[in-house]
Amino acid sequence: MSIRTNNDLPDDRSFPMISLDKHSDTAALIGRLFFSSLFLLFGYGKLIGYAGAVSYMGSLGLPAPALFTVLATIIEIGGGLLVLVGYKTRLVSLGLAIYVLVSAFIGHSHLDDLNQFQHFMKNMAIVGGSLAFVAFGGGAYSLDARALLSRATSDGDVAPLQRKFPLVSAEHR
Questions:
Q1: Maximal C-alpha separation, the chain
Q2: Mind listing the pLDDT tens digit for each residue in 135-172?
Q3: Cα gap 25→162, rounded to integer Å
Q4: How far apart are CA 127 and CA 56, in angstroms?
Q5: What radius of gyration do the chain's Cα atoms show?
Q6: Structural domain includes residue 30
Q7: Structural domain span for residue 68
Q8: How many domains does the chain have?
Q9: What distance in Å separates the CA atoms of residue 46 and residue 32, rounded to the nearest whole number?
């Protein structure tokens, strides 16, 4: 654990600052597991409770509720699986952010109802988490990183990759 001090505080006070950089790839993996589980569970729920999901979509006033249920199921299960394994994490996360944002406005638009407001804000938090994956990617324990490593080894230049992902060993040179 590397500890730095911050001497930029008034009155020359300092405090230890712990660098968490070495844990970012593990955090990205765990974050992907939690994030994708939401989509996988809700997508699976739509799949096994298809009639109820279609009925709910119809109650929201959506045209062709059966079509929207199928699309939602595909987006949730497909997007959840892709984020889980870290494939095209940034692009898929952007798509999921848009999907959740649109879903929030369709499904939780009665913001004067506390329950609807809480669900709406939960969706906004999910959008924020999704945008974090857009910004930072899936981490070293992802198929994205594996593909990047494969391209780097075929080019013969692994050094920049080792700076980004310290787990890349010297044997890949």
A1: 66
A2: 999 999 999 998 888 777 776 666 666 666 655 554 44
A3: 13
A4: 22
A5: 21
A6: yes
A7: 19-165
A8: 1
A9: 21
**Residue 79: which of 99, 62, 64 has the closest Cα?**
99
- The helix/strand/coil state of 61 is coil
Q: Is residue 105 one of the residues assigned to a domain? A: yes
Locate tokens 């729920």: which residue?
45
Would residue 2 count as lying in a domain?
no
- pLDDT of 126 reads 97
Distance between CA atoms of 166 and 16, rounded to whole angstroms? 24
pTM of the model: 0.80
Rounded to whole angstroms, the Cα distance separating 101 from 92 reads: 14
Give the three-state DSSP class for 83.
helix
How far apart are the C-alpha atoms of 15 and 100, rounded to whole Å? 40
In sequence order, what are the residues at sequence separation of 6 or more whose Cβ sits closer than 8 angstroms to the Cβ of residue 152? 158, 160, 161, 172
Residue 7 forms part of a structural domain: no
In the chain, what are the helix, strand and coil shares in percent, each to the nearest 5?
75, 5, 25
In contact, 43 and 77? CB cutoff 8 Å: yes
Q: Which amino acid is at 70?
A: V
